[in-house]
Write a structure and sequence with these properties.
Helix content is 37%, strand content 22%. The protein is built from 8 helices and 12 strands. GO terms for molecular function: phosphoric diester hydrolase activity.
């Protein structure tokens, strides 16, 4: 092989390898993060790898809240998350720990997504991007949950957002470039409630879900589990032992303390 040609092919391979990535995170997920006394800040200080924000489209803004009665004009997705995340990324540079921003569309997914694209455009340099079949992971990865405009994102060959799927997607040809995360209600699949030992059957089922997801380079998350307190710690240990990727908490500090002890 011509030396110059060989070098060129090697360079192309290195560039492709550095660009074609899978989105894999493992650690705490700050459930309904906006309910924290200090949204985002508490999660970052306690090493969360994922943050959840529910949004409603109100005029030309995405307001953060679980229900419409909670909404406040100043609590926009941009003010609470996009702007401060952008500032953190600029200040910390390569030292910033990459994070998922899980945006839960509460209604009207199609128009909410259109607005999300408009609002997030000034921050695209920090957002993980999918382009022509390849993923470039950056500081912040937006994953859309709730009323997801699945078909629209599926058709886009250049986008700055991904989809949160469900466990039923494992039965289909799920693509990590579109759906890097599968989430499910724990109580839809398991009867174990943290009391006594989990049955062998349910433990094997949990482990199988983890293996199936990881074979497809997809993350797994369960919701509907206790978010804090002694019972939550029992769940956190089980989920961690099984290899579940994102573990929900309502108390980032408590989960961080657990994680430090768990790693010992």
């Amino acid at each position: 092989m011509n030396l110059q040609l060989g070098f060129t092919l090697l360079l192309c391979l290195v560039q492709l390898t550095s660009f074609a990535q899978d989105l894999m995170f493992k650690g705490g997920h700050s459930h309904n993060d906006y309910h924290q006394e200090y949204p985002l800040q508490t999660a970052l200080e306690n090493g969360m790898v994922s943050i959840e924000a529910d949004v409603f489209m109100v005029g030309d803004q995405l307001l953060v809240g679980h229900e419409k009665k909670e909404l406040k004009a100043q609590n926009t997705l941009e003010n609470l998350y996009l702007k401060p995340l952008f500032k953190e990324v600029q200040q910390q540079g390569d030292h910033f720990q990459p994070i998922i921003l899980l945006v839960d569309f509460k209604a009207d997914g199609i128009n909410t997504y259109r607005l999300l694209k408009k609002i997030s455009q000034p921050y695209e340099t920090m957002l993980s991007v999918y382009k022509d079949g390849l993923i470039e992971q950056r500081a912040v990865t937006i994953i859309i949950s709730g009323d997801r405009p699945f078909e629209i994102l599926k058709k886009e060959q250049h986008r700055y957002a991904f989809i949160d799927g469900n466990l039923n997607d494992l039965e289909q040809d799920v693509d990590a470039g579109l759906t890097p995360l599968l989430s499910a209600d724990w109580n839809d699949y398991f009867k174990w409630n943290g009391v006594d030992d989990i049955s062998d059957t349910e433990l094997k089922q949990l482990q199988q879900f983890v293996v199936q997801c990881h074979q497809k380079n997809i993350m797994l998350r369960f919701w509907g589990t206790p978010g804090e307190g002694e019972i939550a710690i029992i769940y956190w240990k089980l989920l961690s032992d099984a290899g579940v990727d994102l573990i929900g908490t309502d108390n980032p500090k408590e989960y961080n303390d657990f994680r430090k002890e768990y790693k010992k």
